[in-house]
Amino acid sequence: MELEDQWWKGQVAADIYQALRYKELKLPSYKGQSPQLNLRRYFADLIAIISNRFQLCPTARHLAVYLLDLFMDRYDVTVQQLHMVSLSCLVLACKFEEREDRVPKLETLNGLGCMSSMNLVLTRQGLLHMELLLLETFNWNLYLPTAAHFIDYYLSIAVLAGDLHDGWPMASLEKTKLYMNKYADYFLEVSLQDHFFLCFTPSLVAAACLSASRLILHLSPSWPPRLQRLTGYAWENLMPCVEKLLIAHDSDLKEANKQKCQQQQQQGQTAFHSSGQQAPVTQYLQLPSMQYPQKAPQAGLAANHRSGSYLSHSTSSLQGPNGPQHSATQAAATSTESKPSIPSRSYPVSMHYSYTAPCYDA
Q1: Which residues of 146-179 are buried (b: 16+ CB within 10 A; e: fewer)?
Q2: By the 8 A CB rule, do 114 and 48 touch?
Q3: What are the residue boundaries of the structural domains of the chain, listed by start?
Q4: CATH number of 147-297
Q5: Which of 61, 140, 155, 277 is most buried when burial is the number of CB atoms within 10 A of its CB?
Q6: Contact between residue 208 and residue 238 where contact means Cβ atoms under 8 Å apart
């Protein structure tokens, strides 16, 4: 959206934010009535994979998926056409969000491994025709805010020195900010996986990503007054969206633990057992400012923790939409790399429950 780099730090940041909030009130309605809705996940993953391949900005990726959602909601499109639509949405979103030199070229797209595996070849005329159809569908207006457009503005005050970790001062503010950014990016990608999140406004989804991240990182209060004032959302407004995000996180942890267990069994090692009993997701959501048991402060973030992306895609291959469906922990089965091993650490969420998270050493 023709915004300067790090606009959220500029003097007109508040004005830009208010313009985005005003614009999201006029977003097109989404009814979730596409006959190909069951293929939506596959094509959203395809966009994510190619976006990662070209290192495109999150706003371009999210806008592309949003354009695809709206187009599928209005038209009955064949599977072969959906490939063209998905790639056209991505190219169009890049032209709107990225610098000109970062927009994927036609020859480069056709050279991707996933294109040959799908037996798909883009033509210049076909791509331009589809871009024109998309622009006419949206009345030549691509000024469509997504959660990715709000997240950086919220992150600017997501973690401050006065926040507590497990009821104690943070050992390292900078490292906590780093992990906050990592988890916020992760939950932002989770929101792309399910069209359920389209029932929320983009600004609310972005706020929920921060709230879920603070819960996972055990920062208190989980939704401080400053974030409530900045976003305009109270804890009660965020709960339904936060719960959905935490369910996805729980599923990812179980999948990662399962993969680690399988790897250890193959290596003849002792089977992996998760330490601590996992609590239901609802235990996160009881109070916006949970009290933590008093204990000695932790040494801080694990220095050797590898906080890689949960959605590390590659474009070597991509299984077609008729292939087996997968859980929310994977973007595409044959085209994503294995998740990094996530060490299980139990940490208190309340006086009675524990949960696992990879960010802090015990």
Answers
A1: bbbbbbbbbbeebbeeebebbeeebeeeebbeeb
A2: no
A3: 29-137, 147-297
A4: 1.10.472
A5: 61
A6: yes
pLDDT value at 213 more than 90: yes
Say if 29-137 and 147-297 have the same CATH topology: yes
Q: Decide if 46 contacts 318 (C-beta within 8 A).
A: yes
Q: Cα(60)–Cα(69) distance, rounded to whole angstroms?
A: 14
pLDDT value of position 78: 86
The answer, yes or no, to whether residue 279 has pLDDT greater than 70, is: no
Q: Report CA torsion sign: 105, 58, 60, 69.
A: positive
Q: What pLDDT was estimated at residue 281?
A: 55
CATH superfamily, domain 29-137, is Cyclin-like (1.10.472.10)
